[in-house]
Sequence to fold (554 residues):
Amino acid sequence: MPGMWWVVGGTLVVALVAAYLIWTAGRVERLQARAQLAARALDAHLLRRAAAAAVLAERRYGVELYAAARIALDAQPDEREAAENDLTRQLRAVRLDPSDPDCEAVIAASRRLALARQVHTDLVRDARTARGRPLVRLLRMGRGHTWPRYFDIDDPTLTVPAADVPTR
Amino acid sequence: MRIGIVCPYSFDVPGGVQNHVMDLAEALIGLGHEVSVLAPADEDSTLPSYVVPAGRSVPLPYNGSVARIAFGPVSTARVRRWITRGDFDVLHVHEPLALSLSMLAVLSARGPVVATFHTAMTRSRVLSAAQGVLQIVLERITARIAVSALARKVQVEHLDGGAVEIPNGVAVAKFAGVEPLPGWPGECSPGADGTLGFLGRFTEPRKGFPILRDAFVELAEQRPGLRLLVAGPGDRDDLFDRFPPGLRDRVTFLGLVSEADKARMLRSVHLYVAPNTGGESFGMILTEALAAGTTVVASDLDAFRRVLDNGRAGRLFPTGDAVALRATLAELLDDAAQRAELTACGDQVVANFDWPVVARRVLEVYAAAIEATDGRVIDQEWVGSD
Fold:
């Protein structure tokens, strides 16, 4: 009975395609969700660094650094990258003393921010690759989420005089 | 923090990745974290208490050498069980792109995954042929660590991603207080004597032993007491054939040495020489020599320059230049003050490579991975960086 084999074969192909589509949809969903969580963590680290810089500016370095920290804290989403880069520049311009707790807080916050930025960039790239695949675009998978966006800032790592601090 | 670490290669044979995993696990335990290491090993082999054996491993040729790894349905089941029972906050796998326990663990993991890349495979058939399959593995990794600038470059150029560069650690305490071999290093008076050391496979061209040999032969004529200490795999007669008969009694060959004897060997010489001509991605041996408090003379490779802080912590000479090496050696053997200055600087530099320091940086990457998985931020104190 060749007709029955056609039915069995057809069902199998449909089942495999369905399984693949479900798996791909899950994959896209997972990568999207992860990129969003990474963005939240990055946001929190940006706020922490700006807050630590503001504390330091109040005590030691005065108006310019304080202004940069305030602007970074209050920046609108479309101005935020520039504001954060400006804060990084301001922090690099002052001499940070790692033995001072307020300075150390800024250095540590910058280090953690650098890691959060690295992880966020990687996860956004993964999510964008998944969203950009032809099949995913065709079936408009993951359309419930906004297209994942890079947060494009300079490396915020602060260089500290060598030998005293474990990080470079 | 509960940390699960996966080592792809068997602890039954020594190797760079295995040492790295063991030292990292011990450093993390020392910082008060709970660590479980999964590695291929026979059930009856003696292992540290934090290692969970994942069964027999099979030898497979990989990246130019033979690695003993485990892969297959039985290993998969064991990896799954270990992950479920471990209930880890973070899973840290090493070399996840080798067909190994590490890859299985990445594919079975649910939570945050940190991966460390050790080798700098510049052209790998696996990498180019199976990009689609690798993407499935790679996209389950939350944060990547590369142990050298070269390994990081491979990440950026071939795997389309970034990585945090955290160097290999060195257990400074294991090297610092060790007794030198009896009778070594001896005197080092200007123009008369001194001791040079070399560790590695002297038959391998890229280790650069012939450059050191040429420099030694010339220099030994001028300094009647100059001695050379060689350690590493190889044949004794083969080594001595490389020297003129008159100089053979001034060369000592130790053969392959254990980790403990390596530390003693490094402390038994006035100058440790690394004449490598290439192929080094990090220069682990230099950090070990610095940890032992020995003055280092190394060829001007990128990796060595980074470790030696541009020549501040050890002398660099033009790669492959035996004449320049000889001049550098003669100058340093005559100048005890300059040697002392270099080693003092070396102590500072190597402090950055000490395992507890390196482990804290790894912990910060763990924190970043956990944060990126559940979106909440971990306090600095909890990471243990203060």
User: Anything to note?
Assistant: The first strand of chain B starts at residue 2 and ends at 6.
